[in-house]
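DATA SHEET
Item: assembly model
Revision: 1
Owner: S.N.
Input lines:
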Amino acid sequence: MRDTKGFKIYRAVVLAVLGLFVLVPLYVMVTSSMKPLSDVQGAFTWWPSNLTLDPFVDMWRTVPLARYFVNSTIVSVAATAFSVAIAILAAFAVSRFRFRGRTVFSTTVLSTQMFPGVLFLLPLFLIFVNINNSTGVQLVGTRLGLIITYLTFSLPFSIWMLAGYFDSIPRELDEAALVDGCGPMGALWRVVLPAARPGVIAVAIYSFMTAWGEVLFASVMTTEANRTLSVGLRQYSTQTNVYWNQIMAAALVVSIPVVIGFLLAQRHFVAGVTAGAVK
Amino acid sequence: MSVATHETPVTAGATPRPKKKRGPDRRPGLSRSLPYLLLAPAVLLELLIHIIPMLVGIWMSFVKLTKFFIANWSAAPWAGFDNYKVAVDINNAVGEGLLKSFGVTIIFSAVTLALSWALGMAAAVALQPAFKGRSIVRTLFLVPYALPAYAGILTWNFMLQRDTGAVNHVLVDNLGLTSDRPFWLIGGNALISLITVAVWKLWTFAFLTLMAGLQSIPNDVYEAASVDGAGLVRQWRHITLPSLRPVNLVLVLVLFLWTFSDFNTPYVLFGTAQPPAGDLITFHIYNASFLTWNFGSGAAMSVLLLIFLMIVTGAYLLVTGRRSRRA
Amino acid sequence: MRLRSLVAAVAVSALGISLAACGGSDSGDSSGGGGGGDATLTYWASNQGTSLDNDKQVLTPVLEKFTQETGVKVNLEVIGWNDLQTRIQTAITSGQAPDVVNIGNTWAASLQATDAFLPFDGDAMTAIGGKDKFVPTALATGGKEGTDPTSVPLYGLAYGLYYNKAMFQQAGLQPPKTWEEMVAAAKKLTNPAKNQWGMALAAGSYTENVHFAFINAAQNKSEWFNAEGKPTFTSDGNVQGVLRYLDLMQKDKVANPSNAQYDNGTKAVNDFATKKVAMVINQNNANSSIVANGMKPGEYGVVPFPAPAGGEQVASHVAGINLSIFKTTKNKDAALKFVKYMTDAPTQTTLGKPFASLPVLKDAKPAFTSDAAEAATFSDIYNTKSKPLPLVPAEDQYESTVGKAMNSMFAKIATGGTVTADEVKAALKTAEDQVAASS
């Protein structure tokens, strides 16, 4: 049917144009990371005339990249774990129970996605400081503060997506579990969660990417001790030089784990998004 | 945001009833409080990170929170609606700046949304029928979305440099389109650059979502249509587009909200040297707050932005909701 | 991070929010200050060396020596210029601040207005060695005139006109003494076809731009604020001063239009060091970048940035880094000791070289260069030919509004437009309105 000539031409054109659009920046990133500094400061060339891997070595020295890497990893993994766990509980409640305030909850939580970050950036900072003063829990300049913030950022979307996913799982399955003597939590754990695995994976990817790439709050809430990659990368522009080759090398290296993780799990992500969006 | 659309199709009647029957005869107290217990962590965190800070932000918009008072908040004088008056008075420099930035943001948001959706749709349709290498292409197309935002934007910043960038190398040296090297990060072109970078990142999300939506259209519908002699364009208009309607409703709204409050792209692309043509509104507010130390005024602008987004979203949901009910 | 403490934190904040909203300053906790035992200071240093890491390496032994002498430990954090202002702002707002901090001295009056910093009044000033040890113009940057300063100079910097000796010699040129000579020399050394330009300007950096708006206007004997602290941006001297600087690219065409994209001084210096341009105006800490990018110390000379014939001899603003103590410090005595230590002659000499800074002390010799002529030139500029930027609370807004207006005008010129005196005036009027509206 749609293997007509017209469609094939259309497909070839679309794939060529979009392929170039996607690939060129990636190509520039990779090749520039392998050029000496003098070459990236001069006129651009498609082929690196002097290949070198020095930027991949130097980048760890110019900026304490390893420390930022550790920070980003800990923050993102922890934020993801908590976000997914909390979202599962909330989505289960929204999907399987009818209770007072259910609509208010869903609407409010999702509308928080609309809040411009600049509006609550400074207030959040102040609240963290106050918590610190009253309880001694240090939230500013620590990973804990970032984890709490980031996990909340991905929460609304995660709850929404998971609730959609749970809705698509037949209720008869829960009931069977309930008949077998499981409580509602047992039904969640033994029946709903296994069936919703793709959705959970999708939410986890989303949460991780949110935390790994966040810039605005990181620029205010991080100090040297908990600085993440998103703001750390800016430090390759120093007082004496802009180390473009090292920036590209670092950008490449910090992207690889996320990109690989995302691509490995992309099928689940697609399935998860579909379940959330299409019903 | 997309909540309300989610609200409609939930099979509200069917779900909870069986549980209601079952719940009470086992553990009545727990069953009633269980949903609230399940929600508690999410509610507490939302309160802490979103709701309460937003309320504090709204309070800030009503006080004169300039550098004279930020060290001692309680002494900041009540400003009433003064911050708002300054922000919306288009005859003064601050209001005029905000209005211009608002205009730039509308253009940016509309064009980015349209292009991202169009490219995402074009690619999703192209990849709909299976062919050799489809999964490789799909994987490749998803890379910009998977890349951390700042890594992609920094690369574009490098490519858009006037003398050393790849873009001018192509336009001037390789293709010889102009002899004069254009600027991409300052002047009027800055908006084009901003849109390009944002589209580069966002279209793959549109692609991902639309592709997922297309999977739910059974193939025989197309076959039946082509038997009836419908061309590809007609098939797209009469089958693909209507089937994707629920996906599109959500996708357009999400893209709008993301682009309209995009902070990362201008912040990473322009740094401190942002040109007026690339002065997106959240970035404008960030500068109004942190650069001029007027957090009250910045908060008032944020609240105005929030109100605008709420009105647009509300109107959108109302209109689309009504239409789908009629359909 | 355990879940229980997390939940506790959430609960506490939900209950205590009425306090949280407006309790900002009273219970401020200096993040480094542990009670009892030896005092520990938290010190935020700005980025002066080639990288944050380099700064740390330079400062660590200096701080260790201080600990040996006094028993006071110092927690160092080096903060890049991109982040420093935001970090200071949030520190002031929250009261969660370090003990001692570096500030760009041009922010001194603005930061003083926040009332978050310890004034160096009689006792405090005596504790750090008395005001007489400082170069008077340098100390003048410490705060508003007629008040106790809330910051004292740490590293002195001044603009100089760097020129490439070989290029000047080949063209038979002498180092310029007036603006006109500078433009004439630049024109002679400009050859766009060969991508050779007379000068490089950091025309996309609003902080650099505003400095030159200020210096050029000062050469016209013009002020940006009147005695009451109200902005007077649109005066003729200011407009002409700004236009003169813009004309380097617009009318004289001695600067590559690409410079409009140079968002920090580094890029202009790189062009000079790699011999793409014959002259660059930069602060004396350019030395380390110049050498790092391949030029040898003897290959360049420095003269004061010249005024037009008959103009006021202002070659620089009083640039540099100041030290401030946060009022919230719990270790005031230790902090004062630390400020004294950092501004004493031996430390100044030790740090002067790696950070290429001018001493802020009277009678001290610059250590940043072995070139005696260059040292003398910069000392002369710093001590006799510089004027502090406006010492008013709105200085920060002056920097951002006027600087960004200049960015836009340079962008317009670079993309083929022209900027007339009237347009300069209109742009400065907008900047003035912005400052007036938010003060």
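QC remark: Chain C touches chain A through 51 residues (CB under 8 Å).
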